[in-house]
Amino acid sequence: VAVDLQAVHDFLIQIAHEAGTMILTAKPVAAGSGTKKNSADLVSETDQAVEKMVSTRLKAKYPDFDFMGEETYKDGDTLAADTPTFIVDPIDGTTNFFHAHPYLCVSLGLAIARQPVVGVVFNPFTRTLYTAIKGQGAHLTDPWHEHARLPLRAPEALRDLSTCLVAVEWGAEREGNDYEVKAATFRKLCLRKEEGGAVVHGIRSLGSAELNLCGVAAGWLDVYWEAGCYAWDVCAGWVVLEEAGGRMVGCHEGDWEPRVEQRRYLAVRGGEGQRGVIEEMWGCVQGRIEVG
Ligand code: IPD
């Protein structure tokens, strides 16, 4: 069945604005959850209310499509191979939401045959909207830009990892193998070259996977490396990233073709030198991530 991707894209933008209004007017209240890992694993009632609104609207208009959302996901759910699936994070950056930190977004993606094909990422605080349809480019609309094509300028060459601004995220894990691998990898990125490190320009941990991907797409981040996030944390931004010339690969050496459900990613912006930076970044990973 041919899907009108433009119509999906336009509808997702409408819903993203509605969700944004809900987020802006809500007071963060923790939702009861029996499965929390620790005090850093947060869910608010607004996450649940926004997802309910989004899924209701999408199911009414696209009754034959599947839906995967952060709040209704059950362990073991996988993406259907043959049914288009909406992949939704009602609030990507829930921890920031609790702290009124304005780096968060509603993230609405569509995958067909398990490939992300439409992405809409909206930060209601800054009114920043990133959108993309596979094969049609990525765009930014905000108070200063009206549907500007990404990246905003021709990307400068990526010389090497030492000249990069690198986003990483801790996620909610605070113990175990993956936590140790992350901590050692972050440290390595900052170590001097003589010690095998890269001395990157800086490390950012801003709290929203989707906005990080869009930041790499726009060019105000060069690299984003994370393990532990889910399909809804990356689906929409993945389309924006690749349509802006960025590249998504896996977080370990040699993984050039990651799947959207893989939970281990490395995104590098467009520009000459992209491949070299991917390989250098892989070289800094201190061990094997197990999740996914
Ligand atoms: C989280 C954010 C965070 C990332 C986590 C995600 P949520 O999403 O994207 O930056 O480190 O892995 O789970 O829980 O705020 O939707």
TrEMBL record:
What keywords would UniProt list here? Hydrolase, Magnesium, Metal-binding
| Reaction(s) the record says it catalyses | a myo-inositol phosphate + H2O = myo-inositol + phosphate
- Can you tell me which residues bind Mg(2+) 1? 70, 91, 233
Q: Where does Mg(2+) 2 bind?
A: 89, 92
Cofactor field = Mg(2+)
MF terms per GO, please? Answer: inositol monophosphate 1-phosphatase activity; metal ion binding
Pathway(s) it belongs to: Polyol metabolism; myo-inositol biosynthesis; myo-inositol from D-glucose 6-phosphate: step 2/2
- Which EC class, in a word? hydrolase
Please provide an example of a Pfam family that matches this protein in its UniProt record. Inositol_P
Give EC number(s), comma-separated. Answer: 3.1.3.25
- One GO biological process term: inositol metabolic process
The UniProt entry's sequence similarity note says: Belongs to the inositol monophosphatase superfamily.
Protein name per UniProt: Inositol-1-monophosphatase
